[in-house]
Amino acid sequence: MSRDILVAGETLIDWVPERSGPLEDVAGFERRPGGAPANVAVALARLGEPPLFWTRVGADPFGRYLERTLADHEIPDRFVERDPAAKTTLAFVTHDEGGEREFTFYRDGTADTRLEPGRIDDATLSDWEWVHAGGVTLSSGSAREATLDLLERAAAADCTVSFDPNLRSELWPDEETFATVVGEALAHVDICLATGPELAALGYDGDSPTALARAAVERGPVHTAVVTRGAAGAVAVASADAPWGEAAVEHPGFAVETVDTTGAGDAFVAGAIAALRDGDDLEAAITVANAVGARATTAAGGMTALPTRAEVAALLEAE
Questions:
Q1: Which of 295, 298, 297 is nearest to 311 (CA)?
Q2: Residue-range domains of the chain with CATH
Q3: Which residues form the Carbohydrate kinase PfkB domain (predicted)?
């Protein structure tokens, strides 16, 4: 088997509002597949690099819908688990007039909190080049231990490990717990892709995105830190230990007509992974990642707005 990408984490239903405004004022919603790692997996597939995806959904209509959606995007079902004793997570999305969103989760004891350690064995990990996970599954349930276990063993198997803290404050008892648990995860991570506020919540000091990224790299073992800045693009810092060499780069993003930012950060992550695996240097990879993320904001929904490689190439050519 060729060494490839394994993505791990939650798959859920995003309920997208019919209009912007507070949740209590919205009367109608549309069901959309979501979950940050699921979006990353599907985004990679849309870019022509379908990964294996380890996730867990409920044995309910929503779970069956998500299983079908993943299959439709050519995600293999090898590690897509169905939990007979739990429901599928739901998240209600609210938007402001600029398309920025907040989430309200229904996730107490749901299937994605019940991932179990050891489901991905060492022999499987030895065949993998890259493992990516996010912070939501660290927030509760057996999924916390399962995610930490996967990251530790992936690092031991010499996989490249990337991680998105994906702070959702509603899911954590306090910021200190978030910093402690995610700090355990970062002990096994090569590449951290985060927002500035997330890095600050993790205890890194810096008065700019670049300074925060540099602080993350200097503390280690992370060798590359990428800080996303929404419509303003992203910055990245890599140490001499990074395969692409020591660097500090930035890209201002792409001017597009934004409809919905849901999933844009996940699209960015997928773009960065795909570009770095293709052998791009850090500056080129951040440019590609920004193009993937920007293109994903031009339609509503998370997975439904993810671009193809051709659509990303068209945006890059128009820059």
A1: 295
A2: 5-11+36-88+115-318 (3.40.1190.20)
A3: 4-308
> Are 158 and 34 within 8 A, CB to CB?
no
Burial 224-235 (b: 16+ CB within 10 A, else e): bbbbbbbbebbb
Residue 310 scores a pLDDT above 50: yes
Asked if pLDDT for residue 100 goes beyond 80, the answer is no
Stronger pLDDT, 114 or 263, i.e. the higher one? 114
Question: What is the H or E stretch that residue 315 is in?
Answer: helix 309-318
Q: Are 180 and 187 in contact (CB under 8 A)?
A: no
Cβ neighbours for 191, distance < 8 A, ≥ 6 positions apart: 160, 161, 162, 163, 222, 223, 224, 225, 226, 272, 276
Looking at residue 93, what is its pLDDT? 82
Transcribe 222-291 into DSSP letters. --EEEEE-GGG-EEEEE-TTSTT-SEEEEE-------S--TTHHHHHHHHHHHHHHTT--HHHHHHHHHH
The residue that leads in pLDDT, 94 or 3, is 94
Percent of the chain scoring above 90 in pLDDT = 82
Q: At 37, which helix (H) or strand (E)?
A: helix 36-46
